[in-house]
Design goal:
Helix content: 25-40%
Oligomer: single chain
Strand content: 15-25%
Shape: globular
Structural class: alpha/beta
Number of helices: 6
Length: about 180
């Protein structure tokens, strides 16, 4: 209804997403992750059997959603001081089947986005940010969730912004807006 649309617009504005971007409310952060990958397959951007690099130390639904839609998670080490994805491990994990990376910002600590984005760009890899534990976190003047191609947030009771339950997807590609809303 109108309150959900107002919340979507307010959060999109808060993140300062570019014109044409969308904020799409969903029922949970786990559903946000699932809908991102289901929509990418539905749109033909990813295909069953593609690899997605994910951190080994993270919440289960970061990788379980990949199994649900037929993608293959490639687990890599996290940095010991931040628990975030290690850029060197990401670079080493890339194969010709790697089509996306799910960068998780853990415990309000942003991942090393400059390094990770450069690796992704150099290898034509789609970047999805999981910001479920990092609402309001900045990386070099940019809020996490606004840096990659798409992002997922959670409003679960244990996270820094809560609606009791709920989630949000941010997508920069306007052509994916209707796909995600339809899959939702």
């Amino acid at each position: 209804g109108p309150r959900v649309k107002a919340f979507e617009n307010a959060y999109k504005s808060y993140l300062k997403l570019p014109e044409g971007s969308s904020a799409i409310a969903v029922n949970s952060g786990s559903s946000a992750n699932l809908l991102i990958f289901a929509s990418l397959i539905d749109a033909g951007i990813l295909k069953i059997g593609d690899e997605v690099v994910v951190p080994a130390a993270t919440f289960a639904t970061v990788s379980s959603v990949l199994y649900q839609v037929g993608l293959i998670p490639v687990y890599i080490d996290s940095e010991m001081d931040t628990w975030n994805m290690d850029p060197n491990a990401f670079n080493e994990a890339i194969s010709d089947k790697t089509k996306a990376v799910m960068i998780v910002h853990n415990l309000g600590i942003p991942a090393k986005m400059d390094e990770l984005m450069e690796i992704a760009k150099n290898n034509n890899i789609l970047v999805i940010e999981d910001c479920c534990e990092a609402h309001g976190t900045y990386y070099k003047g940019h809020q996490v969730g606004s840096i990659g191609d798409m992002s997922a947030l959670s409003f679960f009771v244990a996270h820094n912004i809560t609606t009791g339950e709920g989630g949000m997807i941010f997508v920069k590609d306007p052509s994916l807006n209707n796909t995600i809303r339809s899959v939702r």
